[in-house]
């Protein structure tokens, strides 16, 4: 018997709307449900985590999750919430992106299970590529009126928007293509529920309408809220753009830092949405955080849980080590364990200077390095005073006047980290 999926979403703040009768319907037996993912990049980003978590909770509740990669719809572009058409991709690129996305989804969904509710990945390009335009308008288009399609918010908003150039026929038909996906999955996989963000309600209900009119059956719709940040800025974006799940696009360190830097208000909301912790565990964490907000208990646990899920325990350990280098006590050994990409992420925004590697190999006097060579300190006199005060460190180890920087000091054969006091850093890059 399935557990109550809707109740799980409700207490987690993940339920925006559901068709009447959905909760009772899901309690009767195992049901298949799908969520669509846009394959226009070869990585998902944290904005996709809500629908991923929807499917993961669905499978944990005993139901069958279907992840649909929109190879065909990705060639069109969904107008919902958009003000412009997106670029169209060729089939080879879309196939590559699909494989990369499946690997990321497999960290949340069990595709290999021998149980009846094993997850399934499908691509709508596989059933749309042989569908001729004439067949589509005959077999699908005639069942949905233009009046019905025009009444959808995604269409109305786009057509009435002053900043928009209008809406192409391609985009207008998007809801028909997505609606047909639902009908196809209803027939091929006995899939009776489609889930998505609240901006997808119109597209989803077009599918339920096709199932009713063409399939003679009943489909259900469920949406989750679009995630916002308490300060009004966009969730899922950092200064460098999207926060990706692919470690090559967003390093595990930067990924970890994104969650660690959430506000108290957001952390309380996110820990319910982006972790599998129980209600009792989360309530205990919220209470402990309220007792000592400066300890950032919620943020740390949120960042820990989600970094392990998306990356691994090892990557989390490395991200914590990297964080401690900047904000806590660490040694030159800790520093030397950082790979070049993480080193640059940790010291992003720290002033840098390039020095020829040959000069470093010959040995450089610390005073010249601190002042003339880098400009880290204003003069040789200031450098001498700082050294006398014991406030200068090279690669996290205090040094005295007379110290010489050599190739031995290079981290990753490339960097030297200078530090004055606790917070003033400077990076030398060997070139």
Describe the structure in brief.
This protein has 431 residues and is an alpha/beta fold. It is 45% helix and 14% strand. It has helices spanning 5-12, 22-28, 49-60, 91-105, 125-128, 133-139, 146-150, 153-160, 169-172, 174-189, 201-213, 252-260, 264-273, 279-291, 297-310, 313-327, 332-336, 340-346, 357-362, 366-373, 380-388; strands spanning 17-18, 32-37, 64-69, 120-123, 191-197, 220-224, 237-238, 241-242, 352-355, 364-365, 392-394, 397-398, 404-405, 415-420, 424-430.
Extended strand count: 15
Coarse shape: elongated
Rg measurement, Å: 27 Å
The low-pLDDT segments are none
Number of helices: 21
What's the main sheet like?
A: 6 strands, mixed
* End-to-end distance: 64 Å
Element layout with pairings:
Layout: H1 5-12, E1 17-18, H2 22-28, E2 32-37, H3 49-60, E3 64-69, H4 91-105, E4 120-123, H5 125-128, H6 133-139, H7 146-150, H8 153-160, H9 169-172, H10 174-189, E5 191-197, H11 201-213, E6 220-224, E7 237-238, E8 241-242, H12 252-260, H13 264-273, H14 279-291, H15 297-310, H16 313-327, H17 332-336, H18 340-346, E9 352-355, H19 357-362, E10 364-365, H20 366-373, H21 380-388, E11 392-394, E12 397-398, E13 404-405, E14 415-420, E15 424-430
Parallel strand pairs: 2-3, 2-5, 3-4, 5-6, 9-15
Antiparallel strand pairs: 1-6, 7-8, 10-13, 11-12, 11-14, 14-15
Q: Could you please describe the fold and organization of this structure?
A:
This protein has 431 residues and is α/β, with parallel strands linked by helices. It is built from 21 helices and 15 strands. The strands form 4 sheets. It has a 6-stranded mixed β-sheet, with helices on both faces. Strands 9-15-14-11-12 form a 5-stranded mixed β-sheet. Helix 11 links the parallel strand 5 (191-197) and strand 6. The protein is elongated.
């Amino acid at each position: 018997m399935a557990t109550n999926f809707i109740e799980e979403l409700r207490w987690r703040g993940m339920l925006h709307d559901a068709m009447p009768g959905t909760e009772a319907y899901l309690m009767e037996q195992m049901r298949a449900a799908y969520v669509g993912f846009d394959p226009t990049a070869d990585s998902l980003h944290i904005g996709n985590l809500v629908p991923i978590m929807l499917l993961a909770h669905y499978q944990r509740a005993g139901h069958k999750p279907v992840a649909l990669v929109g190879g065909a719809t990705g060639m069109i572009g969904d107008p919902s919430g958009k003000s412009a058409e997106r670029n169209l991709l060729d089939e080879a690129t879309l196939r590559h992106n699909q494989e990369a996305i499946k690997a990321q989804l497999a960290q949340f969904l069990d595709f290999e299970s021998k149980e009846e509710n094993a997850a399934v990945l499908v691509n709508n390009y596989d059933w749309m590529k042989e569908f001729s335009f004439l067949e589509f308008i005959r077999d699908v288009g005639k069942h949905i009126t233009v009046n019905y399609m025009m009444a959808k918010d995604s269409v109305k908003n786009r057509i009435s928007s002053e900043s928009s150039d209008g809406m192409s026929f391609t985009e207008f038909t998007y809801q028909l293509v997505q609606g047909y996906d639902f009908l196809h999955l209803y027939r091929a996989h006995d899939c009776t529920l489609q889930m998505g963000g609240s901006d997808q309600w119109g597209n989803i209900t077009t599918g339920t309408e096709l199932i009713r009119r063409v399939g003679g059956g009943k489909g259900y719709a469920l949406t989750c809220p679009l995630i916002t940040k308490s300060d009004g800025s966009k969730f899922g974006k950092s200064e460098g753009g999207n926060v990706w799940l692919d470690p090559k696009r967003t390093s595990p360190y930067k990924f970890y830092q994104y969650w660690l830097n959430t506000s108290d208000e957001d952390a309380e909301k996110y820990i319910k949405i982006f972790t599998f912790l129980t209600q009792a565990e989360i309530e205990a964490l919220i209470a402990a955080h309220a007792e000592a907000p400066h300890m950032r208990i919620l943020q740390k646990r949120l960042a820990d849980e989600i970094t392990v899920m998306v990356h691994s325990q090892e990557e989390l350990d490395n991200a914590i080590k990297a964080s401690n280098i900047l904000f806590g006590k660490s040694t030159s050994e800790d520093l030397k364990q950082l790979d070049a990409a993480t080193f640059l992420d940790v010291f992003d925004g720290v002033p840098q200077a390039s020095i020829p590697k040959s000069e470093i190999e010959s040995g450089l006097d610390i005073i010249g390095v601190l002042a003339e060579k880098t400009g880290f300190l204003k003069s040789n006199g200031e450098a001498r005073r700082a050294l006398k005060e014991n406030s200068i460190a090279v690669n996290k180890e205090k040094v005295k006047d007379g110290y010489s920087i050599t190739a031995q000091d290079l981290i990753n054969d490339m960097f030297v980290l200078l530090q004055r006091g606790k917070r003033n850093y400077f990076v030398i890059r060997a070139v």
